Structures are given as C-alpha cells and as structure tokens.
C-alpha cells in the first residue's frame, strides 16, 4: 500500500557531486538520445540507485506518465511533490489516486511558512506583488530540501512545452541544486504523452478536461486558449514563465 507523508525539516547531508564537463555531459547524453523514456529511467536507476528521486506535481500529465513508467521500471523509486499550500483540490485528488494505484509514498515538502504566516510577513497576495519571491519561498526552498541527499532527480521537462525548454536533453547538470537532472520525456510531444496515458489508463488531473494544460498553484494558473503555448496559463499577464525550479 502507498502512503502520503509530509516533510518539513531538512533532508540528509548532501554528498558532493562533481559537475560534469560539457564533454562528459555529451558522453552521457549521446547513448540516450532516441533510446526512449523507459531506457533512460533504467539507466538513471542503475547509475544513481537510491540517490535518484522523481518529482511529481500530480498536476501535469507528463509527471503522471513518468510516475507510471517509473512504477514499472524502478518501483522503489523515491517520489516527492511540493505542497505549496495553494494546490488545487483536483491535484490532491490525483495524488491520492496515484498513491492507491502505484503503492508509492508521496513525500510532500511544505514551505517553512504557512500561507497565513507568509501573508503576515509579506502582505496578502505575494503571488501578485512579488511572484518570484512567492515561488522561492513555496517551491524552490522546499525543493532544495527534497533534493538533499540525492545525486539526481527526474523531472517532466519536454522540449515542446515552451521556448525556454526547447534545448532540453535527457541528462542535464542542475547548477541550482548541484545534482543531475533527468528528463526521460525530453523529446515527447503533448500528443505522445496523452497517447501513453490513454493506453496505460494513467490517472490524470481532472483540470485537464477543463482546458488546464499546465497546472500549478490556484492563484497563478488558468486554462489555456486555442493556439496558446502549453504553459501560457501559468502566471498569465506577467513576464514570468518559470517558477524557478528549472533554470
């Protein structure tokens, strides 16, 4: 049986991982280009073992497809999500369905301040007055704790999601968190993901059926219109395009 756990304190002491040179990173990527996501997951599990973790927001369909694949390829993989305090009810429902389906423990990392404490310190609606700070407090800092003790993390990055992700490769070095970042679905399209989800009966967030292509926090997510980029519904009306996790 799966479970849901909450983490508030810091993780284990992080081991030293030497950043790869560009040539070393190329050498890692070349055999994986075109290998397929399951092969990339197997490679990552073999190389990093228990110091590999999967980030699943239970919002995006890509993360759910990855969770389904990982449950088949490496069922003991550590799975975490960021409990920002502003998740949609549908996101939490998807989390619960995934826990039942895959028997994983969904390890939630919360911000150090509750939404009420954040409002008392920074004012109401920080996501509007300073969205970068809001993301730093509620996503980036908890994500740093989630990755403590890890050598690599798996993320649902795809080239077709936005112009800022057009150069994603299977294996990248993440300088912000000082570890490897694995993108098994780097070259998949939205259609590829939905085809996999339908074929494998993967549970997905109900908000997708209402036009939400990319799902984050309640205050900063809207449905997308026809012809818009998949992430156009995130921080709509501002120049912000990323939460700060993927630089």
What's the SSE blueprint?
Elements: E1 3-7, H1 22-29, H2 37-48, E2 52-55, H3 61-73, E3 78-83, H4 89-102, E4 105-110, H5 115-122, H6 126-129, H7 131-146, E5 152-154, E6 171-174, E7 179-182, H8 190-200
Parallel strand pairs: 1-4, 2-3, 2-5, 3-4, 5-7
Antiparallel strand pairs: 6-7
Helix pairs in contact: 2-3, 3-8
Beta percentage is: 5-15%
Radius of gyration: 17 Å
Shape: globular
How many individual β-strands? 7
Number of helices: 8
Report the major sheet.
7 strands, mixed
Give the termini separation.
Answer: 35 Å
The secondary-structure class comes to alpha/beta
Q: Helices and strands, in N-to-C order? A: EHHEHEHEHHHEEEH
As residue ranges, the low-confidence spans are: none
Could you tell me the mean pLDDT?
A: 89
Describe the protein in words.
By secondary structure, the protein is α/β, with parallel strands linked by helices. 35% of the residues lie in helices and 13% in strands. It is built from eight helices and seven strands, in the order E-H-H-E-H-E-H-E-H-H-H-E-E-E-H. The chain has helices at residues 22-29, 37-48, 61-73, 89-102, 115-122, 126-129, 131-146, 190-200; strands spanning 3-7, 52-55, 78-83, 105-110, 152-154, 171-174, 179-182. A seven-stranded mixed beta sheet has the order 1-4-3-2-5-7-6. The longest helix is centred in the middle third of the chain and has 16 residues, at 131-146. It is globular, with a radius of gyration of 17 Å. The mean pLDDT is 89.
């Amino acid at each position: 049986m799966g479970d849901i756990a909450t983490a508030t304190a810091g993780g284990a002491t992080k081991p030293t991982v030497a950043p790869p040179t560009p040539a070393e990173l190329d050498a890692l990527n070349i055999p994986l280009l075109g290998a397929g996501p399951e092969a990339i997951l197997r490679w990552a599990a073999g190389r990093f073992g228990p110091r590999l973790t999967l980030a699943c927001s239970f919002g995006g369909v890509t993360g759910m497809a990855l969770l389904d694949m990982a449950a088949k390829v490496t069922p003991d993989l550590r799975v975490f999500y960021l409990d920002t305090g502003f998740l949609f009810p549908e996101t939490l429902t998807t989390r619960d369905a995934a826990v039942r389906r895959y028997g994983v423990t969904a390890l939630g990392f919360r911000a150090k301040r509750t939404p009420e404490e954040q409002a008392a310190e920074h004012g109401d609606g920080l996501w509007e007055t300073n969205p970068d700070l809001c993301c730093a407090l509620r996503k980036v800092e908890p994500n740093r704790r989630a990755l403590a003790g890890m050598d690599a993390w798996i993320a649902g990055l795809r080239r077709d999601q936005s112009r800022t992700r057009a150069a994603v490769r299977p294996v990248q070095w993440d300088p912000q968190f000082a570890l490897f970042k694995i993108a098994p679905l780097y070259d998949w399209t939205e259609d590829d993901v939905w085809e996999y989800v339908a074929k494998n009966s993967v549970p997905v967030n109900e908000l997708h059926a209402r036009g939400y292509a990319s799902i984050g926090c309640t205050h900063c997510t809207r449905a997308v219109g026809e012809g818009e980029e998949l992430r156009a519904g995130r921080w709509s009306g501002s120049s912000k395009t990323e939460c700060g996790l993927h630089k």
